[in-house]
Structures are given as C-alpha cells and as structure tokens.
Amino acid sequence: MSFPRKRESNLQNILVVGIGNTLRCDDGVGPYVAGCIEAKAIKGVKVLVTQQLHVEDIDQMLAFDRVILIDASTAGPVLEFRRVEGVKGQPLSSSHHLSAETFVNLADSLYHKSLFMQLCSIRGHNFNVGDKITPAVQACANQAVELICSSISHFPPPCGEEL
Questions:
Q1: 3-state secondary structure 4-62
Q2: Which of 30, 46, 5, 45 is nearest to 155 (CA)?
Q3: Residue 101: other Cβ atoms inside 10 A
Q4: Structural domain boundaries of the chain?
Q5: What local confidence, expressed as pLDDT, does residue 87 receive?
Q6: CATH homologous superfamily of domain 14-89+96-153?
Q7: CA-based nearest residue to 143, from 111, 115, 121
Q8: Cis omega before residue 156 (within 30°)?
Q9: Model pTM score
Q10: Picking from 34-38, 76-80, 90-94, which range would have the lowest pLDDT averaged per residue?
Q11: How far apart are CA 141 and CA 144, in angstroms?
C-alpha cells in the first residue's frame, strides 16, 4: 500500500481507508463509503481502498494526524463510529487479520508513537459473491458518509471534548 505524504500547511491531515472486497456484496461497503468521501474532494483528506490492512502500513499511517477505517462487520451495531483504543497485553495472533486495536498497539510498541484511529463499522448481511451492496447496507453506508464528513469538518475537536 502506498500513501501520499505531502501535507499542506494549516490543513487537516486525514487518511480515510475503505477496507473490503467489492466482489463480496456487502463486504464492499468500506470501499463504497471511501469512494463517496473521495468524490467530495475534501482538502487535507486522502482516501485509500484496500482489501485488508498489513503491518507494513503502520509506518505510513503515522504520517497522518488521524486515520479513519471503514469496514463491514458481521455482528454488532448496524452502524458504529468510534475511536480505537489500544488494548494492553493484546497478543498478535496472526498477521492475516489485524484488528484496528492491534494497529494502535503496534504503533505504540514499534514506533513509540500514538496512532489516532477511528473505525466506522457497518453491519453487512450478504457476503456472497456479487458486486451489489444490499439496500439496507446501502442506506447505512450513506449515513456513514454524512457522519464521517461531519466528523472531519469538526476535527480537531475543542479541548476536552470526546470523539
């Protein structure tokens, strides 16, 4: 994965990453949302689409003030947008499936830097082969675009305000 590193002065420096396989129906919701955000051409926001994250991506992610991951989930809330916190003592069980929390932990343990990361999860229903997102997931995806864009426009938050 290759990330742009150029930063314009006085602009936010945010990376939006749409994760998923566009040939597995609802699994393509991350790339869909990322594409919608990219179409808005928000200054200081870089967009990337990938099928999965890799350990090697951490170094380049640290060049950004904030990283927003967008991915389909198989359980949990229909739509969730939250800050990712590292988990102390979490072992690295596999490099083939890395959680967002693992990325935050690895940034701290390998680079001694904080990675400000948020995760937008959209619960999918159909992960069969196909290139169409189901209507219910499409509706949540459109809500996610608005939620993320609103969050971007209010970043950084006023001192002491939670994300």
A1: CCCCCCCCCCEEEEEECCCCEHHHHHHHHHHHHHHHCCCCCEEEEEECCCCCCHHHHHC
A2: 45
A3: 15
A4: 14-89+96-153
A5: 72
A6: HybD-like (3.40.50.1450)
A7: 121
A8: yes
A9: 0.85
A10: 90-94
A11: 5
